[in-house]
């Protein structure tokens, strides 16, 4: 019987951006309250430094498609949450694109609404964790 192996991953928790890395992939989960006002897809003043840090990671190690995924909590309707998550992902893409100078990198966005929660939507703390935008990209290990 062949044994299954899992890639080694590290997770760095941060109130602004939690980063998960493996040899071939990096994912940065940005807290929505760092990027947006409540129920808004317009980037706030704190967003620029957080996105600059993500762009620096992409410029240093990124390759291929950068995937930007928006998520919400379960407050409001499914349709509202879906539209908000899509708009937030697009806002991050619009701001991140000129900051990334790594040639050959392309961007895709997706909104997932309240799908794929990372915490319990029954608590304020859980809802806050579920409101996020993730930016993931292949690293040079995939080249």
Automatic annotation (TrEMBL):
Residues 23-141 form the OmpA-like domain. It is found in: Cell outer membrane. Pfam families: OmpA. PROSITE patterns: OMPA_2. InterPro entries: Bact_OuterMem_StrucFunc, OMP_bac, OmpA-like, OmpA-like_sf. Coiled coil: none annotated. Keywords: Cell outer membrane, Membrane. Residues 122-137 have a biased composition (Polar residues). Gene3D superfamilies: OmpA-like domain. It comes from the Bacteria. Residues 108-143 are annotated as: Disordered. PANTHER family: LIPOPROTEIN YIAD-RELATED, STATOR ELEMENT OF FLAGELLAR MOTOR COMPLEX. This is OmpA family protein. It comes from Microbacterium elymi. The lineage of its organism: Bacteria, Bacillati, Actinomycetota, Actinomycetes, Micrococcales.
């Amino acid at each position: 019987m062949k044994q299954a192996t899992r890639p080694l991953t590290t997770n760095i928790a941060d109130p602004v951006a939690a980063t998960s890395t493996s040899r071939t992939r990096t994912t940065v989960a940005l807290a929505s309250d760092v990027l947006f006002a409540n129920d808004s897809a317009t980037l706030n003043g704190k967003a620029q430094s957080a996105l600059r840090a993500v762009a620096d990671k992409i410029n240093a190690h990124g390759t291929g498609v950068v995937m930007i995924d928006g998520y919400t909590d379960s407050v409001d309707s499914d349709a509202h949450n879906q539209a908000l998550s899509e708009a937030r992902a697009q806002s991050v893409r619009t701001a991140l694109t000129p900051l990334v100078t790594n040639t050959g990198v392309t961007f895709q966005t997706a909104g997932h609404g309240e799908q794929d929660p990372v915490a319990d939507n029954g608590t304020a703390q859980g809802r806050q964790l579920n409101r996020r935008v993730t930016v993931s990209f292949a690293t040079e290990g995939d080249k």
